[in-house]
Amino acid sequence: MIVCIAPLLEGEALARAGALARAARYRDGAETAGWHARAVKHNRQAEPADVAEAAAIVAAALQAHPVFQSAVLPQRLSPILFNRYAPGMDYGPHVDDAVMGTPRLRSDVSFTLFLDDPAGYEGGELVIDSAGGEESVKLAAGACVVYPATHLHRVAPVVRGTRHAAVGWAQSLVRDAAAREILFDLDTARRAVFERLGKSETFDRLAKTYANLLRRWAEP
Ligand code: NI
């Protein structure tokens, strides 16, 4: 399940995070890739100290967003990285490391937050290889795409302008992507029923089923 959250950041928060990302110092992105992804990673990665405030803005927005919470069921977030693609840069097909960082985090969900107006650069689509074929994602500044870390994916070459994005991973309470999708659908349905019928008998049945499936699948 690929979920787009638009917007995740807006107004002051988006302007500040974008300005910090554009002003940061950058180094070769290959330094932070796994050994097999290194061969295809051609981008730049921001010095963590220069984007610490921007990372805190993004993490707070993710933790506060109801759709992110419902779709991801985050247990822990990785540090958030900021990358830059100038003309000629790309990131070829790869799968993200399954376990990363200290303390160790199992990457169940990947996310990319777009920071630039898409009209300002050409190329730079995030292309996700899902069961239904390739899905190409290029979103407005401040919008975020969330997808299972189990998918191969790539960033298409930027041919004009510069693309900045924040990326990171979540370890979910629910490891299995299909189970997370069932819970997300059921949560969305129970909220819609609550809107329409209030705390009715139908809502209670759905809420019970949601709670019991989460209880069955959660690994806190
Ligand atoms: Ni990746």
Residues in helices, as a percent range: 25-40%
- What would you call the quaternary organization? single chain
Query: Roughly how many Å apart are the termini?
Result: 22 Å
Overall pLDDT confidence: 96
SS element count, helices: 5
How are the secondary structure elements laid out?
Layout: E1 3-5, H1 11-23, E2 26-28, E3 41-42, E4 44-46, H2 52-64, H3 66-72, E5 74-77, E6 81-85, E7 90-94, E8 99-100, E9 105-106, E10 109-114, E11 122-123, E12 126-130, E13 133-137, E14 144-148, E15 152-155, E16 158-160, E17 163-172, H4 177-197, H5 201-217
Antiparallel strand pairs: 1-14, 2-4, 3-7, 4-6, 5-17, 6-17, 7-15, 8-9, 10-14, 10-17, 11-16, 12-13, 12-15
The structure holds nickel (II) ion.
Residues 94, 96, 153 line the site of nickel (II) ion.
Question: Would you kindly provide a brief summary of this structure?
Answer:
With 220 residues, this protein is of the alpha+beta class.
Based on the model shown, name its key terms.
220 residues, alpha+beta, 5-stranded antiparallel beta sheet, 17 strands, binds nickel (II) ion
Describe the 3D structure.
- The protein has 220 residues and is α+β, with helices and mostly antiparallel strands.
- It is 32% helix and 31% strand.
- It has five helices and 17 strands.
- Strands 1, 2, 4, 5, 6, 10, 14 and 17 form an eight-stranded antiparallel beta sheet that branches. A five-stranded antiparallel beta sheet has the order 3-7-15-12-13, with no helix packed on it.
- The longest helix is centred in the last third of the chain and has 21 residues, at 177-197.
- The mean pLDDT is 96.
- The structure holds nickel (II) ion.
- Nickel (II) ion (NI) binds at residues 94, 96, 153.
